[in-house]
Design goal:
Porin; 221 residues; alpha+beta; 20% helix
């Protein structure tokens, strides 16, 4: 009886803590959305591994920034590194070795929430969900061959950190994981893998305010 009572008390305590945390987060996000929004634009690159080979994706993101605490918007990512392999494909004259290159491109929706921010350090969480297409791009000689592309669903939770060197310049790193749901018969490579990146961060709005502090635009930022 004592063990059951202790279990119930522990479960109730954990449930209460979870509800309180969710309530606090919801209240914080509601307060962030009430802040004056400003445009958010960034170029992004993420390193990962596909078929035991280094693979980097490049992306562009556009959205809105609520007071530097909450950002949300959309973007597009595409596999940038060439992942070349040769496959034997049937032809009228028999089998022939054909060069192929793996393709992955997807649209995404992102939310970035800054949960820790001081004069020098900033930490945020950035989950992304996306939908895109995967395929092999085949080449017969130097001529590309049209191939069917198949849908894929992507989820990328990520944790990012930044060390601020100045008001407008910093260095950052991020780490997370890419989960891809796709038809295994269409593209055999496994896209599920850790993702990471290292970057130099330039905050253009703050740099503009440093260079042109007395302009009308600087006062509005």
């Amino acid at each position: 009886m004592k063990n059951k009572a202790l279990t119930v008390i522990c479960c109730f305590t954990l449930l209460h803590a979870f509800v309180c945390a969710q309530t606090q987060l919801t209240d914080t996000l509601r307060m962030c959305i009430k802040r004056k929004p400003s445009p958010d634009f960034s170029l992004d690159s993420r390193d990962s591994f596909i078929a035991n080979r280094h693979a980097r994706t490049y992306g562009i993101k556009i959205g809105v920034d609520f007071g530097g605490r909450l950002k949300m918007g959309g973007g597009y990512y595409q596999l940038g590194d060439e992942l070349i392999k040769f496959e034997l494909l049937p032809t009228s004259a028999g089998s022939k070795s054909i060069k192929s290159n793996l393709f992955l491109g997807y649209l995404c929706y992102y939310v970035e929430y800054v949960f820790y921010n001081t004069k020098r350090w900033k930490f945020s969480t950035t989950p992304q969900v996306g939908i895109g297409l995967t395929s092999y791009n085949y080449f017969y000689g130097n001529l590309p061959l049209k191939t069917e592309r198949y849908p894929a669903f992507i989820y990328e939770p990520c944790l990012s950190g930044e060390y601020k060197l100045t008001r407008w310049l910093g260095v950052g790193a991020s780490a997370g994981f890419r989960l891809v749901l796709k038809n295994r018969n269409s593209v055999k490579e496994n896209f599920n893998a850790p993702i990471y990146s290292f970057s130099v961060l330039i905050h253009w709005d703050k740099l503009y305010k440093v260079l042109f502090p007395n302009t009308t635009l600087a006062k509005k930022i």
